[in-house]
Automatic annotation (TrEMBL):
Name used for this protein in its record: Peptidase M50
Keyword Ribonucleoprotein: no
Transmembrane segments: 24-42, 49-75, 95-115, 127-150, 162-184, 196-219
Provenance organism: Halorubrum aidingense JCM 13560
Keyword Zinc: no
Keywords, alphabetical: Membrane, Transmembrane, Transmembrane helix
InterPro entries in the record: Metallopeptidase_M50B
Amino acid sequence: MSGATPRGRRIAGLYFSGVELRDLLVAWLALGVAFTFFFVGGTAGFDRLLAAGVVLPLLVGLLTAGVAFLLHEIAHKVVAVHYDQVAEFRADTSMLFLAVMSSLLGFIFAAPGAVHHRGRLTKREHGHIALAGPVVNLLLTLVFLPALLVGPVVGSQVITLIGSRGIAINVFLAAFNLIPYGPLDGKTVIGWSKPVWAAIFVPSVLLAVGLVIVGGLGFGGPF
């Protein structure tokens, strides 16, 4: 007998099946755990994780990496449904397991799953669906920016950490997914429009290099 799954629900006018809701929840939790381990340096940082009480670092992981990946996938679904597609997210449990295991070693490889859709689409519509995820990630950097600015003012290291990691993860996720290779969004976008791809990819890479790699944004903090 198969395990029970949650009932389907309509959220903000968008229908999510029970299986889809379960998969989104599993992916969100797994990525939150994976990035919690990753940000303390894997097993080498367990003492810092335990000293912080585990719950707070996990909450930061869920609110930053978890939300970034979750809304990235939901954005694909929203645009696909807009084009009259039957679209649902499916988690890739083996890749989620790999994400958690790699994070224990101090690095991370995260590919939580994908939105699968069916129906006739033009190349332009395929491009719009693919582009939606990275664009949402770039917009999310603006959502996390107030936390980065307000945190130091109110003297909250945790709020500052949520802001910096939220921005760093979303910028990196946008840039990485726009690489025109394999199953990544960039291959579909560039196949539709090279100018649009370049207009989004180049700023994403510059932000990722400037803020994350050079500036070290997102990697500081107590845990």
